[in-house]
Amino acid sequence: MDFFVAENRSIVVKIGSALLANPDLLTPRFSFIQRLLEDVAQLRSEGCNVILCSSGAVALGLRTVGETPETAGVSDKQAAAACGMPLLLNAYKQVGHEYGFEIAQVLLTLGDFEHHRRFLNTRNTVHRLLEAGVVPIVNENDSITTEEIRVGDNDRLAAKVAQMVGAKEFVILTCVEGLYDRNPDDPAAKLVEEVGDVGEYMEATTGKSTLGTGGMTTKLKAANMAQEAGCTTYIANGEHERPLSAVLSGERRCTKCLPHPKPLSGKDSWIANRLQMAGSIEISKELADALVDEKRSIRREDILAMDGDFTRGDVLHLYDSEGVERARGLSDFTSEEIRVMTFNPDTPEEQLLGYKTKGEVIRSNNLVMLENRHLLWDAPEGMTPS
């Protein structure tokens, strides 16, 4: 058996549901899986680590629970995921054996990405599988997740996996050639072959497939996450004889999203690239502007307003007084502790909280300025004044 190590060239591949499931019969498309895994085998023979982030479980299980993509509700999709996952993994396993490699299932939830210890534990598991020559197949655990704890789309989940393993290449296989400068139904639409700033194209990305949960918008959000981690993203049509290698070699048309020339460190990338907002605070525009040149800790007296119920170690989004997101950082306190401190500004922190503290809500080394590198999030409505 060939053994792979984490230092080898790592490629993360996200496969959309429409490629994996027949839209009419809701059965596995073995012809596509055959082409995909033949290409995976070729890349492995060249010394690459390949991690697959696969959609398809819900689509393949819908028929079992007597539903269609149009009629299925949340509980139907959860049940369908439980039925479809064995079908999906069996298809991968059967074809993988033809090419002499094993596959492993890695089911994740939002918390596995948002909580740093779980993030590191997940990374260690994926690295161990790669060392054993096993191809990890990653998916969200759709059978147990609810809206509040969902990643929500496998595009961003796959981007987080790419960040997690330090991949240099991230391929999103879909049913179109890539990103277009306007709705692809428009006859005048043109393929965008290279992208630096994905924000320039967000307005052109509307719509999604019948079987999938994400359209081109989520793909650009995923590409932005990958860019910040120094990873090149390719958005390409999967309906080709060599769906991966022909993209990576530049042999066919696709959209290539360039990595940032100065990628963030692993820790800063984890802080900056969020899947959900745990909480937010507002600071003055003057302070936000000053932080660009010289980062310092955020203290209770800096907070003008806040939103959310969060715990110590959660990532907070920092907005200036004009409602523009400027930074993200790790909170040293719970939301309740911050409320107590900000509502009692003249009382020492130690007296209020009952333990010794410097009163730094976000330490300077846990603060990441966004500086026009990231897609910004809208401020929550009705932030509570401090």
Strand order of the largest sheet: 3-4-2-1-5-7-8-6
Strand content: 15-25%
Following the backbone from N to C, one meets helices and strands in this order, namely EHHEHHEHHEHEEHEHEHEHEEEEHHEEE
Biggest β-sheet strands, sense, barrel? 8 strands, mixed
CATH class designation of the largest domain: Alpha Beta
In the CATH scheme, what's the topology name of the largest domain?
Carbamate kinase
The unreliable regions are: 208-214
Number of helices: 13
Q: Give me the CATH superfamily of the largest domain.
A: Acetylglutamate kinase-like
Rg over C-alpha atoms, rounded to the nearest angstrom:
22 Å
Mean pLDDT equals 90
Q: Name the overall outline.
A: globular
* Percent range of helical residues: 25-40%
How far the N terminus sits from the C terminus, by CA atoms, comes to 61 Å
Give me the secondary-structure category.
Answer: alpha/beta
Count of domain modules: 2
Could you provide a short overview of the structure?
The protein contains 13 helices and 16 strands. With 386 residues, it is of the alpha/beta class. The strands form 3 sheets. An 8-stranded mixed beta sheet has the order 3-4-2-1-5-7-8-6, sandwiched between helices. The protein has a 6-stranded mixed beta sheet with strand order 15-13-12-9-11-16, sandwiched between helices.
Describe the protein.
By secondary structure, the protein is of the alpha/beta class. It has two domains: 10-268, 3-Layer(aba) Sandwich (Carbamate kinase), CATH 3.40.1160; 277-385, Archaeosine Trna-guanine Transglycosylase, Chain: A, domain 4 (Roll). The protein is 33% helix and 18% strand. It is built from 13 helices and 16 strands. The strands form three sheets. Strands 3-4-2-1-5-7-8-6 form an eight-stranded mixed beta sheet, with helices on both faces. β12 and β13 form a beta hairpin. α2 (30-45) packs across α4. The longest helix is centred in the N-terminal third of the chain and has 25 residues, at 74-98. The radius of gyration is 22 Å and the shape is globular. It starts with 9 loop residues before the first strand and ends with a strand.
